[in-house]
Amino acid sequence: MTVVRSGPENAPSLSMAAKRVTVPSTRSTRRLDVGIPFGTPIPGARDVLHRWIEDSGVAVLLDLIDAAGCSSYVSAGAARDAIRYSQGLEATEPRDFDIAIEGLQGSLFSALMSEFGGTRNRYGGYRLNLANGGGCDVWRLESSCGLRAAKVAPSLSNMLRTFVFDLNSVAFDASTGLFYDNGCLRALRSKSLGLADEAIVHSEGWFAAKAVSLQLRFGLSLQRPIRQLIRTKLTRASLMHELNKAWPPDVVSDITKSLVIAEP
């Protein structure tokens, strides 16, 4: 197994901001998610993800949220790649993190993100810059864009269902060291991309493009529902947007030339 590290630097801007921030404790109102009653300990994945969190500087934010009695979940890509590592697969230390925070009031969340120098992103959350050149997208679980799009009640289990694909339907609670897996491990073992358990499918054009990107990145076979999604919902615009996040322009051009896209 191989881990490619992006550098030893922490994020001094996050560390400095944390020293200036006081978040009132809300532990007495902390709500436990009943949709996923048990987390899963995956020691190899837990240890490497803790190291990535420390190296990136994200730990200072997670510690602050935990001290306030709220929950924070490292979601999708970083959690997925840590599990890949635990399965003996090549894993690159992530430059970007996706973090959902549960239980923090909207006004406090906005003030906290402002203190950390966050800027609004297109998904209703905030983008924080990291010292390694990457970034951290942070949002309140209660206002997750997938939950809003699907008009379902906010909960950890529903948020994972809105991640649509089994491969990415996973979150990690750094305070407990537990993973909440809604299909990721199954996808890795089967080397295929399918729907998450009880997936809430939304934003179909965007997810069709993401399916193509995931297939190309990880060499996965596509299960029938995913093939159907790509065949009926993929657009060139959504594909270009998704591929440009992972590959340089010349590679994106070669990929798109080789694909036949039937615009829905």
What does this structure look like?
Helices cover 43% and strands 15% of the residues. It contains twelve helices and eleven strands. The chain has helices spanning 12-20, 43-56, 59-67, 77-86, 106-115, 145-150, 156-161, 184-190, 204-218, 224-233, 236-243, 249-258; strands at 3-4, 71-75, 91-92, 96-102, 119-120, 126-129, 135-140, 170-173, 178-181, 192-193, 221-222. The strands form three sheets. It has a seven-stranded mixed sheet. Strands 1-3 form a two-stranded parallel ribbon. The longest helix has 15 residues, at 204-218.
Largest sheet descriptor? 7 strands, mixed
The tally of structural domains comes to 2
> How do the strands line up in the largest sheet?
5-6-7-4-2-8-9
Name of the top-level CATH class of the largest domain:
Alpha Beta
Distance between the termini: 41 Å
Q: Count of DSSP E strands?
A: 11
Low-confidence stretches: 1-12, 25-37
Find the CATH superfamily of the largest domain. Answer: Beta Polymerase, domain 2
Mean pLDDT, nearest integer?
86
User: What's the alpha carbon Rg, rounded to whole Å?
Assistant: 18 Å
